[in-house]
Automatic annotation (TrEMBL):
It comes from the Bacteria. The keyword Disulfide bond does not apply. Its main location: membrane. It comes from Serratia aquatilis. The chain crosses the membrane at residues 20-48, 68-89, 95-119, 140-160, 166-183. Residues 185-253 form the Mechanosensitive ion channel MscS domain. This is Mechanosensitive ion channel family protein. Residues 336-398 form the Mechanosensitive ion channel MscS C-terminal domain.
Length: 425
């Protein structure tokens, strides 16, 4: 092109120089580039932007949001400028070499950015899918971005040095130890992400509990090197991805998927309040619908045993008798089996644990039919409110460590008996 301009100027007997012909060629390249830029950005991209805003397709809106079309347009402009430089400038000239080298770097950089936009678009589309959402897609895509960036970086350096990329790649073999140290976390994170996905150990939205890192909340992001957890107090905990493989953690997902959340809480019964039920107590408790069937069948069994044994029942050591704590266990079991918020298809029992200095623990072990936290706490509280209220009906007492008011009452009672005035501070 530059030679044709020289011949054209010579034909019209116009005085020219090499600089003038070069400036004319550069002016033509610049003019064509500006026209293409205006057409692409003011017409084509503007039309695509409007269509994307009106579209209901996730992938179409994602491509626009992640600037895929803008970066592709800039990549195309670089290709066009490179082609013009090769066609119109004098081959082997310094100007051609400079423009070609610059545009090739431009093409490689925007090719990398286009790849980033494609990966971000694909990631957003995958996040909308229930099945694909279980995969650590973000970590894998970040790994691909890292590899692509290293590759493009090697290509640019080799272009500027005028050497083959294979020479640089062969030289990297001696730097393997250094690279392993520098990229240790991304490599470990990529491997950990694949293991987490393959074993279905963790996904976004899971309730994760990891006391070592102070994490107790919902997983909001699984990246190449870190996992972000929003704790229940709305703080953010960042955990290295590879630590989820090397250390243990608790995932509450199966609890949420099961539809039931466990209640496992005890009340401590004062041992001195445990006794055999009297006839009067049996008659009173038999009026409760939840205990009628139990008491009738149990009394029939006890009477049959005692009549066959022919023992002197005037002594409480002889024969079998019902206890108030055993009857309370039967009542609570029947109460839970008729409770509308208790899951009847899961484990349900009221059991007595080993006695200790604080009395006899009576444990409620059951599952609610909801996993919602607030509803679960309300159901559990209602159940134990009821237990505390009915405990006196069985003539039992809840064990409680003496409070300051208890000590004050003791002093006052002693003062009333001895007639000595006592002052409590």
């Amino acid at each position: 092109m530059q030679q044709q301009i020289n011949q054209w100027l010579l034909k019209f007997r116009i005085e020219y120089t090499d600089v003038m012909s070069l400036m004319l060629v550069l002016g033509v390249i610049l003019l064509i580039s500006v026209i293409i830029h205006l057409v692409l950005h003011r017409v084509v991209l503007a039309m695509i932007q409007r269509n994307s805003q009106q579209s209901q397709r996730v992938w179409q809106r994602a491509m626009t949001e992640h600037k895929l079309f803008q970066r592709s347009a800039l990549l195309l402009q670089g290709v066009i400028i490179n082609a013009q430089a090769l066609l119109w400038l004098r081959s082997g000239s310094g100007t051609q070499t400079f423009i070609v080298t610059t545009t090739q770097i431009w093409i490689m950089l925007f090719s990398l950015l286009v790849l980033f936009s494609l990966l971000d678009t694909l990631l957003e589309v995958l996040n909308k899918s229930t099945i694909a959402n279980q995969l650590p897609s973000k970590g894998i895509f970040q790994g691909v971005k890292l590899v692509a960036t290293i590759f493009i970086g090697i290509m640019i350096v080799s272009l500027l040095m005028g050497r083959s990329p294979l020479l640089l790649l062969s030289g990297l073999g001696a730097m393997t130890a250094v690279l392993m140290l520098v990229f240790k976390d991304p490599i470990l994170g990529l491997v950990a992400g694949i293991q987490l996905s393959a074993n279905n150990m963790l996904k976004i939205g899971d309730w994760l509990e990891m006391p070592k890192y102070g994490a107790d909340g919902a997983v909001v992001d699984i990246g190449l090197t870190t996992v972000k957890v929003t704790n229940w107090d709305n703080t953010i905990t960042t955990i290295p991805t590879y630590s989820l493989i090397s250390d243990s953690f608790k995932n509450w997902r199966s609890m949420s998927e099961s539809g039931g959340r466990r209640i496992k809480r005890s009340i401590n019964i004062d041992i001195s309040s445990v006794h055999f039920l009297s006839e009067k107590e049996l008659e009173r408790l038999n009026a409760n619908p939840l205990l009628q069937r139990y008491l009738q069948s149990k009394m029939q069994e006890v009477n049959q045993h005692n009549s066959q044994a022919e023992l002197d029942l005037s002594l409480s050591l002889n024969g079998r008798r019902l206890t108030n704590i055993g009857t309370l266990r039967a009542y609570l079991s029947s109460y839970l089996r008729t409770h509308p918020n208790i899951h009847q298809q899961m484990t349900l029992m009221v059991r007595q644990l080993a006695p200790g200095p604080e009395g006899v623990p009576l444990e409620i072990y059951a599952f609610t039919n909801t996993t919602a936290w607030a509803e679960y706490e309300a159901i559990q509280s209602d159940i134990f409110d009821h237990i505390f209220a009915v405990i006196d009906e069985f003539n039992l007492r809840i064990h409680q460590t003496p409070t300051g008011n208890d000590v004050r009452t003791i002093f006052i009672n002693q003062a009333d008996k001895t007639g000595v005035e006592t002052t409590l501070v």
